[in-house]
Design brief:
- It is a single chain.
- By secondary structure, the protein is an alpha/beta fold.
- About 40% of the residues lie in helices and about 15% in strands.
- The protein has 15 helices and 13 strands.
- It has a 6-stranded mixed beta sheet with strand order 6-7-5-8-9-10, with helices on both faces. Strands 2-1-3-4 form a 4-stranded parallel beta sheet, with helices on both faces.
- The longest helix has about 35 residues.
- Keywords: Cytoplasm, GTP-binding, Magnesium, Metal-binding, Nucleotide-binding.
- This is GTPase HflX.
- It comes from Amycolatopsis viridis.
- GTPase that associates with the 50S ribosomal subunit and may have a role during protein synthesis or ribosome biogenesis.
């Protein structure tokens, strides 16, 4: 006798849960290091951070702000898969042009690296190629900056073909000015007058062959990636054009990384995208269809999270994705209510949004601020945020608190069809009634012996279809 097995689709894991389990299965095991000993090859391989020491330069703001910035760098390092051992902050008017933190602090940092057994130093800023080389020579360990750390996280978390191409483009743009080839990997051409040429006997060589070859190959790869991303932009623009042609209102979810944007998308639409308590957990934009309480359809798009000092390479590479925010009808700005300094997160997000919309030469869409994680925030912080951000809604995507009120607020803010019609539609044309419900806003409906009497607010094309059945003349 054959045994039948029944499955319940409602109990099947979502796409986000499957991705989260895959990501958890690839966690690094402490103590199993496969790092190369040659630090000069650090840019030629994928970064694998393990035991790290953090260092930052405090140039402006308060001591609390500098410590918060270093704490954020620690969370970034942990997201990349490393163990943070120690953190230092140097008070300076500006970073040292040679070593970023000054020669005295470099000696102190070297002692800490030796004492803790760290194999990596992460700087809370973008290092110049010269600063990077000087620090590695003096500290004798791998040194990376904040930009390389964020790029590494993006490389780990990118899933779609477009996301991987955008991250690779950003990495190559960061790598080009930092290319190095020395010793065995570089054929140097000696100088001098011997032999009447630029080098003596036996010293004339092909020059910086390895370095120039690498630079040429990278430039070719960058050009190819730009072409691929441009082709993907065409596909994205076509999909966006269809929504615009159908006049489907769009809402873009923006906010600081780990503010709960994906959780909010799941709470409103049941999208089931990946949710993780980590920085930059999701990179690939997700668009889902939702409906207002009165039946109007709109789309919700989850965009990549922002962060303070977001690398400009990422802004350029992800511009096609971030353009979704400039073309939206409404921005749903999600703020982490449990963060110690949420107002700084708001300023960082608005700064990136201003940079994006500047290229469009169009104003920012209307903004609705949502304070998320109300279940994890204390009441005093919520009161302060309500004062700082008047008109903001307080929700908890995890518990569902305030989500129905948020959907109602979205319905009020979204654009409505601008043509009001009064029509008596015969029952043989029921598709027109269904279209009015699906694409417009039905104000009143009554079923009569002659047909369905409608009072609806619809788009011009739907109004034209209903014009033949208009009551008391053409649609208003």
């Amino acid at each position: 006798m054959t045994e039948l097995t029944y499955t319940n689709p409602a109990l099947d894991p979502s796409t986000g849960e499957l991705e989260l389990s895959d990501r958890a299965s690839l966690r690094r095991v402490a103590g199993l290091s496969t790092e190369l000993s040659d630090i000069t090859e650090v840019e030629y391989r994928k970064l694998r951070l393990e035991r790290v020491v953090l260092v930052g330069v405090w140039t402006e703001g308060t001591a609390e702000q500098s410590e918060a910035s270093l704490a954020e760098l620690a969370r970034l390092a942990e997201t990349a898969g490393s163990e943070v051992l120690e953190g230092l902050v140097q008070r300076r008017s500006k970073p040292d042009p040679a070593t970023y933190i000054g020669s005295g602090k470099v000696r102190e940092l070297f002692d800490i690296v030796v004492a803790t057994g760290a194999d990596t130093v992460i700087c809370d800023g973008e290092l110049s190629p010269g600063q990077l080389r000087q620090l590695e020579e003096r500290l004798k360990v791998k040194v990376i900056d904040r930009t390389a750390l964020i790029l590494d996280i993006f490389a780990q978390h990118a899933r779609s073909r477009e996301g991987k191409a955008q991250v690779e483009l950003a990495q190559l743009q960061y790598l080009i000015p930092r290319l190095r080839g020395w010793g065995e990997s570089l054929s140097r051409q000696a100088g001098g007058r011997a032999g009447g040429a630029n080098g003596g006997v036996g010293l004339r060589g092909p020059g910086e062959t390895k370095l120039e070859t690498d630079r040429r190959r990278i430039n070719k790869r960058v050009a190819k990636l730009r072409r691929e991303i441009a082709a993907m932009d065409t596909i994205r623009a076509t999909k966006r054009g269809r929504r615009v042609a159908n006049e489907v209102p769009s809402v873009a979810i923006v906010g600081y990384t780990n503010a709960g944007k994906s959780s909010l998308l799941n709470a409103i639409t049941g999208a089931g995208v990946l949710v993780e308590n980590a920085l930059f957990a999701t990179l690939d934009p997700t668009t889902r269809r939702a409906a207002t309480p009165d039946g109007r359809t709109f789309t919700l798009t989850d965009t990549v999270g922002f962060v303070r000092h977001l690398p400009h390479q990422l802004v350029d590479a992800f511009r096609s994705t971030l353009d979704e925010t400039a073309d939206a009808d409404l921005l749903l700005h999600v703020v982490d209510g449990s963060d110690p300094a949420p107002e700084e997160q708001v300023n960082a997000v608005r700064q990136v949004l201003t940079e994006i919309t500047a290229s469009h030469e169009s104003p920012l869409p209307p903004e609705l601020i949502v304070i998320n994680k109300a279940d994890a925030a204390d009441e005093l912080s919520l009161v302060r945020l309500r004062h700082l951000l008047p008109g903001a809604l307080v929700v908890s995507a995890r518990t569902g608190e305030g989500v129905p009120e948020l959907v109602e607020a979205l319905a009020e803010r979204l654009p409505r069809p601008d043509v009001v019609v009064e029509a008596l539609v015969p029952y043989t044309r029921g598709e027109l009634v269904a279209r009015a419900h699906a694409e417009g806003e039905v104000l009143a409906e009554e079923h009569l012996p002659e047909g369905t009497r409608l009072s609806a607010r619809v788009r011009p094309d739907v109004a034209s279809a209903l014009e033949a059945y208009a009551v008391n003349g053409s649609p208003a």
